[in-house]
Write a structure and sequence with these properties.
alpha+beta
Length: 189
């Protein structure tokens, strides 16, 4: 039987930024202390905080080298840039919330890299999008049990600038405590 690898491309975060985001997670979590049940949010583990650029999906072992080469080609001639993230909010916007994001401003260089990678890896581009980091996922059944008048506000402006100087090719493996991510290759910009 052939081995499959669940692959995505991401911008990983510096440890200092992850610790800062962990503090925001704790701050939001404490706003739910009034509940007499488990938290309505399953927080993203600090080591898993990242910005997903392209989700490739399941890839057979023999196709991994082709994916790595396409990713390298998709990042050719790209240079480091700064990405601005600025708001902790419920997501997706204008819908019933399923996640808590740290959302950012659209960035032309990020979109250029994302589109180039999607074309190289998937054959087409999904179009413009705003960068975000998933801080946590909402457990719907618990979330819906909270009285709307008691619901804490999750809407906070924070200034956070990230230097993007590499794109990582990641593998996600399902583990008992949640997904475990491994960097297969880091491509310097």
């Amino acid at each position: 039987m052939e081995t499959r690898h669940r692959i995505f491309l991401a911008i990983n975060l510096a440890e200092k930024i992850k610790r800062r985001l962990e503090n925001y997670q704790k701050e939001i979590e404490s706003s739910f202390n009034f509940l007499d049940c488990e938290s309505p949010i399953r927080w993203t583990r600090i080591n898993n905080l990242h910005i997903t650029l392209v989700f490739v999906g399941d890839v057979f072992t023999q196709d991994l080298d082709e994916i790595l080469q396409a990713a390298r080609k998709g990042t050719e001639d790209q240079t480091p840039f700064e990405l601005k993230l600025n708001k902790i909010c419920l997501a997706p916007p204008n819908k019933s919330p399923r996640m808590i994001w740290l959302a950012g401003e659209r960035n032309q260089q990020l979109e250029t890299i994302k589109n180039s990678l999607e074309k190289a890896l998937l054959g087409s581009s999904s179009g413009p999008s705003s960068p975000h980091i998933t801080l946590g996922k909402i457990r719907q059944w618990q979330w819906k049990r909270i009285d709307p008048e008691e619901m804490p506000q999750i809407d906070k402006e924070i200034p956070l600038n990230i230097l993007v100087d590499s794109i990582d090719i990641m593998e996600s493996e399902s583990k008992k405590g949640g997904p475990q991510y491994t960097i297969l290759e880091s491509i310097k910009l």
